[in-house]
Amino acid sequence: MAVLFGPYHADTDHPWHRAERGELELEACRAEIRALAAEQGFELDLFDILTHMSSGGGTCRRWSEVVRQVRATGRRTPC
Questions:
Q1: CA atoms of 76 and 53, how far apart (whole Å)
Q2: Contacts within 8 Å (CB) and 24+ apart, 53-56
Q3: Which H or E run includes 58?
Q4: Per-residue model confidence (pLDDT) at position 76
Q5: Long-range CB pairs of 6-13, under 8 A, 24+ apart, other chains included
């Protein structure tokens, strides 16, 4: 997750953070994340992960349910 999305506790110059801020095109973000993964000895494709997450690959569906449960208690969420 750190290679894919960068640290959650800080807004850094990680490619994903820069893309979120509109400073980096998504295709360039993908390439930079691939390079970060390769430096650590593995393959990772941002588009494959996002496709999996958005197609009900487990994480997205479960996460959505957790967010609904938290909101039902009256708490606010950033999601």
A1: 23
A2: none
A3: none
A4: 79
A5: none
The C-alpha atoms of residue 55 and residue 34 are separated, in whole angstroms, by 21
Distance (Å, whole) CA 36 – CA 47: 15
What's the pLDDT tens digit per position in 33-74? Answer: 999 999 999 999 999 888 877 776 556 677 778 888 888 999
CB half-sphere exposure, 52, CA atoms < 13 A? 9
**What's the chain's length in residues?**
79
Q: What is the DSSP string of 31-53?
A: HHHHHHHHHTT----HHHHHHHH
Backbone angles phi, psi at 64, to 5 degrees: -60, -40
